[in-house]
Design brief:
Layout (H helix, E strand, L loop, with lengths): L4 E4 L10 H9 L2 H19 L5 H13 L2 E2 H14 L1 H4 L2 H12 L3 E9 H11 L2 E5 L1 E6 L2 E8 L7 H10 L8 E5 L5 H4 L4 E4 L2 E3 L8
Parallel strand pairs: 1-3, 1-7, 3-4, 7-8
Antiparallel strand pairs: 2-6, 5-6, 8-9
Helix pairs in contact: 2-3, 4-7
């Protein structure tokens, strides 16, 4: 008998907060935040005005926040973020649904546009698989550093489908479940036999507002 597959978005679905932004503010020195704001304020303004999509904004913000940062230091901050902040913002409903899929023996994958340093730690602790926006690393005389760039792009929208299809064969599963909360998750929800948008049943092929 085939098993089931459960695909979970992270920000706004498993959590009730925007962890991408929180972690950038948590892990970035104040001087770098100030300098970054000076450098990319037009990008932030364009995003706030709806002229620039989040999928294009996030990589720019990540580049400013994590370029040439020590992997060891950023990962230590990621550990602290996971320990002290994430338990406060994980939705009880999400925790129960994750437990349900575990009890059924389903394969569970978190599919997120948020960043690898803290998501890897949290998913490892929760014994969950992860597909996400991964920060690339480089090695130099001063040790491993994050480049600030993404290894394989921003894991959102149609890219979520590409990440999933590279990792799994959906035909191997009896049923596919998917959980999301924004338009960026709709392509992933369209893959599922049972899909949920903001924890309500989602009808495949139905766009928000229609």
């Amino acid at each position: 008998m085939k098993s089931n597959l459960a695909l979970f978005d992270f920000d706004g679905t498993i959590t009730d907060a925007d962890t991408f932004t929180e972690f950038v503010l948590f892990a970035t020195p104040k001087w770098r935040l100030a300098l970054g704001l000076v450098l990319i304020w037009p990008v932030i303004l364009a995003f706030k005005l709806g002229w620039l999509p989040a999928a294009r904004t996030r990589p720019i913000v990540a580049k400013v926040a994590f370029w040439h940062r020590s992997v060891a230091k950023v990962n230590a901050q990621a550990q602290a973020y996971v320990e002290h902040r994430l338990p406060q913002i994980v939705r009880p409903q999400a925790a129960r649904r994750l437990d349900y899929h575990r009890s059924c023996g389903d394969r569970i994958i978190v599919v997120s546009a948020s960043l690898s340093p803290y998501l890897e730690i949290w998913c490892d602790e929760q014994q969950l698989e992860l597909l996400c926006s991964r920060l690339s690393k480089s090695k130099g005389q001063s040790g491993s550093r994050y480049s600030g760039s993404y290894e394989t792009g921003d894991c959102s929208g149609q890219r979520k489908v590409e990440f999933i299809n590279c990792a799994v064969n959906l035909d191997d599963y009896e049923q596919v479940f998917a959980y999301g909360d924004t338009d960026e998750d709709l392509p992933m929800l369209e893959l599922a036999d049972q899909a949920y948008l903001r924890w309500q049943p989602y009808q495949r092929g139905k766009k928000e507002g229609s």
